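Long-time lurker. I teach an intro course on protein structure, and each term I like to show students one example going from raw sequence to a predicted 3D structure in token notation. This year I'd like something fresh instead of my usual example. Would anyone be willing to generate the tokens for the chain below so I can use it in lecture? Attribution to the forum is fine with me.
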Amino acid sequence: MRPEKQSIRNFSIIAHIDHGKSTLADRIMELTGLISERDKRDQFLDRMDLERERGITIKSQTVRIPYQAWDGHRYILNLIDTPGHVDFNYEVSRSLGACEGAILLVDASQGVEAQTLANVFLALDHDLEIIPVLNKTDLPGAEPERVIQEIEEAIGLDCSNILKISAKTGHEVPELLERIVSDIPPPSGELHAPLKALIFDAWYDAYQGVVVLFRVFDGYLETNQQIQMFHNKKTFEINSLGVFSPAPHTVSWIGPGEVGFLFANIKDLKEARVGDTITSAAEPVQTPCPGFKKIHPMVFCGLYPTEPAKYDPLKKSLERLQLNDTAFTFEPETSDALGFGFRCGFLGLLHMDIIQERLEREFQAELIATAPSVIYEWQHPDGSKQEIDNPSRMPSGETRAMAEPFVRMEIHVPNEYVGPVLKLCEAKRGTQKDMRYLTSSRVIITYEMPFAEVVYDFFDTLKSLSRGYASMDYEFIGFHPAHLAKLEIKINDETVDAMSMIVHRENAYRHGRDLALKFKRAIPRQMFEVVVQACIGNKVIAKERTPPLRKNVTAKCYGGDITRKRKLLEKQKEGKKRMKKMGNIEIPQEAFLAALQKDDS
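-- Reply from a regular --
Happy to contribute to a lecture. Here you go:
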């Protein structure tokens, strides 16, 4: 049975991390009878083991829900569950592009937080109808009146008839379903217009090739239809169409306003890009869907296989991940220490961590990752600018002809933790721009600071200082000139290129000392002396020495002339010198991993 356009509602659930998006999706599916008591489980739409273990949503998920309203009318609800972490903001943006409305979920005890505001602004950019909802109202620490005041003052939404639900118990979730069908408008679009559908997600299936997730704006799709990708003009024949409800169900026809997936024997990973428009091969549209803003990675690191033979399998794994994650980029690079690998770009450290873990779990890749770095801007003497995402591309020594990326950071924090947070931001070379009280007990602090200071341990330190109550959101604002230096690690005068990093001159000594000490502890003792140096150009700023393993050559000398013992010791010393010149240090993988791990000590 084909649904009428007027009975379709496309909506997303948006919120700060851990405010209950996935739990609300679970309750909606249970109340509508989509999942049975036997199949019920927490975080039902979080399909990856990684999501379930970490308790966070990484990938947006869609589900088609049949719903019969109180007046007896039947509706089709297309729900898209979205992530809450700042590193996966692009997933939220893509999902909102396929919707007409959004449920804004706010924790009744935590209140408005940084990602709450960021997601609201994304929804407003897409001109969506927003339904504000208070969640976790059953908790002892819930303060609904305070949080309603925060929503009205910080966001400007009318909360006179706001719903106060509990996604955990299902309290007032039926009323929310009624609000969805009454407040969110049905999709627009013409059935007999030329086909126009937006690709908002895609992934690779080992048996059927590329799976394309789309939203139809005009026209319709049916099995065996000839379709064309707007940007590369490649044509394909649809083998099968389907919807997630929540398991995949095959359908023969998908019309305007609907969300579904298709198989069309698409083999090449680059032929179904997220943001492209699907149109009819017989009657193509003249203008594509708006698509999505291009995502620019902000954090880079090298990923290398542990064995050279695993280079090609790693490349195929990265290509498949990139299809599903447009914010992830990679290009080949080589290292004297680690061989052939890839320079990979990510939106943040959590994004980097998730990609590495997915490579290890889903593709059984064994990896060595180099130190993460942000992208810098190098100004040549002729005035031209070059982006540097790899420290090896920067000249040795110090330079003032470089600029580093800055972000505008908004931190939401309770009043009692303002002092430690200000101190942290100042220590990270931040410049305070604004501080305003959202309520009498909650403050929004705005800083501009170097992204390199944010990307490593800022979030963890912020959470520790505020006992978990602070939240943050940031946006890139441009490059500012900075006094930067290329920090290199040398082992017995040989540069370990994989450990080079770009640091601010103020922090160079601390980083150099820490890295040298970590390498000293991580490299096994040799038969000769090993000297680890941290250098900026020709200047050594930190040095650690590992003494050689020694045999007691004077063990058999009992008494007698002391010169005999000295002669044996001198002979051993000369041998150690020769060995040091000829000896080749094999740095084990464990040493790289130990040197790259954050060490609070």
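Some talking points for your students: The longest strand covers residues 471-491. The CA atoms of residues 181 and 228 lie 34 Å apart.
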